[in-house]
Design goal:
Elements (H helix, E strand, L loop, with lengths): L2 E4 L1 H8 L3 H11 L3 E3 L5 E6 L14 H14 L11 H9 L8 H68 L4 H24 L1
Helix pairs in contact: 1-2, 5-6
């Protein structure tokens, strides 16, 4: 078991993958990470346990991009003269050769336009969903505030009733409380008389 401490770039070079792919691999596999003295991330790798073969890239998109980059790098830089006058700047652009358009570029443009239209439709749908959910949330907020107000009012009513009951029990209430107390004594006397009559 030979564990090596490597930076993401070194790990990528050993596995013949990019630095970002090496970083993603270290995260996926849960490889222990630490920092070096110079602040770079180091990954502890045991190559005897790490069985990794890079997957081939899918599709021809990468070749298209590479060819486009090579074409761009091969073209000469645009001659730009700047003497403080704006006309010279526009003259430099007028020296540029016109870009040739091909059927392939036209089909790519159409594909991009179709993709943009699809994404705009998705964005419109997402916006409609967002608006609908926002309206629903606003309604729920109003209902919640109403329920909170009703709960507060009910709690106040319960507290008042409890105070009245306590005043009736102690007999220190108002005239209404004393009348209720007398009414309670009268009811008790009536019930007692009724029981006595049944015997």
């Amino acid at each position: 078991m030979c564990v090596e401490l490597l930076t993401y770039a070194d790990l990528g070079a050993r596995l013949k993958i990019s630095r970002e792919a090496a970083r993603a691999l270290a995260r996926r596999r849960g490889l222990p990470r630490s920092r070096s003295d110079d602040g770079k991330a180091l990954v502890s790798v045991d190559f005897s346990e790490l069985r990794y073969t890079p997957r081939p890239r899918r599709g021809g998109g990468a070749n298209h991009i590479a060819a486009s980059l090579a074409k761009t790098e091969a073209s000469e830089p645009l001659p730009l003269r700047w003497n403080g006058v704006l006309d010279h700047y526009f003259d430099a652009f007028s020296l540029r050769e016109p870009v040739s358009t091909s059927l392939e570029n036209a089909s790519e443009v159409e594909a991009f336009k179709a993709e943009i239209a699809r994404l705009e439709a998705m964005a419109a749908d997402a916006r409609a969903d967002f608006e609908r959910e926002r309206e629903r949330a606003d309604r729920l907020d109003v209902e919640l505030k109403q329920a909170a107000a009703e709960t507060t009012a009910a709690n106040a009513w319960v507290a008042r009733l409890e105070e009245e009951v306590a005043a009736l029990r102690t007999g220190r209430g108002s005239v209404a409380g004393q009348a209720a107390l007398r009414l309670g004594h009268l009811a008790a006397a009536i019930v007692g008389a009724d029981r006595a009559a049944r015997r």
